[in-house]
Amino acid sequence: MERIDDADLTRITYLSEADGWRQRTGRDDREWNLTSHGTSKAGSYAIFKFNGTYVEVRGMIRPKPHPLTDKNSINTFTLDGREPFVYQPRTFPNRTLYNELLYRSQPLQDTEHTLVMTCTVETGWLWLDYIDYTPSNTSTIAIQPSSEASSRGGTLLSKGAVAAVALGAAIITALVVGGALWCWKRREKRRLKSKSQLDDHVTPFEYPEQSPTSVNQTHLSYFSFASYPSPQGTRAHEKSPRTFWNISPTGSDPRITYTPADAWVVGGVSDEWNSTTRGSKSGRASLSFQFSGKSISVYGTLSGNQSTVNPIDLFVLDGGAPVTFAPGLNGTWLHHQRLYSSPMLKDGPHTLVMNHTVDNSDVFIDYFDITPSDPNATTSQSNPLSTSESGTGTEGLSYGAIAGIAIAISLVLLGCLGLLVWLLRSRRKAVNGTGTADARNRPFLDATAPSMTAARSQNATMPDSDWPRSGSTAGTSGANTQKGPAFRIMNDTGEAGPSVSETPPPYRKHA
């Protein structure tokens, strides 16, 4: 591990609006190399750039020079532009504490990183003594203070790369499934078209003109069924529709508490919600808002007053880690700006606290947007995501979770594709097993079908010698005759009726 002293200006750059940094030298041997750098100017910051896999910052906690006016320290440490880590001593000591750990990172990717250390509270001191870091395995690159290039290194694979892989896998699988469905629909369309052409060329069965009078003229044609009406369904409503409540902070809503009351004033212009806002310039101003819901966002107005300094506001949800809002103002009034947005919360009661930390800076609160509670859901206390103690900040889902979601989506889509292929193959086997489309669309059934049986029955044998031979028909004695074809007709209920026959002319002996 390599140590960088606070006095090494080739590695650490100190910046402020009005020379807010001061250096202590040779005063206490408990300071590394008898030096330290400190500032009490809100907005002053220091930059440290390095190539390595780990970094930590050590400093001092000193008593307030002016206990009645000086504030407790609130300092932020931002690594590679991520969510800042907020360091705030719980109690201000009555004596100086040395070698205090102000910040340390998680294991980092072996690449270039940028650490920004900022004093966020006026008269709240930030004292730096030294920085320890684990250098890169290749070489240590000295970063000149004039360099302004920023590094965007990350831990392991970046979230963007993981999301891109997941999205790509989902798109490819969806394209494969969509192509298979399209081919299946096209095949079905061709099959139905072929069936329609066969139907157009089939002539329904008709009885001969000279049918026997005893034959029941049962209507024979294709079986047809009444069309089944599709149910007229309606699209289901969401169980918990997403709606928003717009709450003006200027009214007498008991859920909003402003402290101290004399630090807040009511104002507003027509471009703001309900033409009203609640604003303050005091570094002691704070508000507390109690609500029930699943998320919250705070909107306000960014000041265009050039005589004020940049604001630094801290938002704390349910006692979690503070989230810093520190915009860079450019002299233009901007309305409906989002100052804070929470992650999705457990449905239940929550408390949001905002602290305005910089004197002579403007903060204007316009309205809150809330996703309200589901009236049918069970109320429970939320546990919002908070910044980790290591200082790298909340990064949402872990890489493992994102990869797991991607794999699950791909497996589900592949499963659907496999099911579709199986259904198509089963359908093909069924078609091959029952015959061709021509056989399936004939208007007549096989001889063994129960619908109709046409059989020829012969009670007399054909003569193999001179006429006559024995055999007779009912009601005719001594005459050689042959029975005609017998028909078995199905009635409307599918039952077989009696057989009838047509008696042809008798055989005659030719000379």
UniProtKB/TrEMBL annotation:
It is a single-pass membrane protein. The keyword Cytoplasm does not apply. Residues 453-462, 470-483 have a biased composition (Polar residues). It is found in: Membrane. It comes from the Eukaryota. Residues 453-511 are annotated as: Disordered. One of its GO terms (cellular component) is membrane. InterPro entries: Immunoregulatory_rcpt-like. Keywords: Membrane, Transmembrane, Transmembrane helix. The chain crosses the membrane at residues 161-184, 399-424. This is Transmembrane protein.
